[in-house]
Amino acid sequence: MIRSAYSPVLEKLLLLALVVVAVLLPKAIASGDEANSTTLDALGYDHTRSGVERCLSDLVWTPEREAEFDQALMELDAEAFATRDAATATLMRMASLPHERLTLEFNKAELTIEKRRRICEVLHLNTATRREFLLYLAASAISTEGYEGLTAVLLHAANSVPVKQRSVWDAVRAAIDRTATKNDVEVLRRGISLPEATARAIACQGLASMKGAEAIPDLRPLLTDPDPRVRFHAALAFYELKSGECLSAFISLLDTTLPDDYQKHDTHIRFNSVNILKKLTGQSFGYRAGHTPEVRRPSIEQWQTWLEKEAPTATLHFDGA
Question: Are 263 and 214 in contact (CB under 8 A)?
Answer without folding.
Answer: no
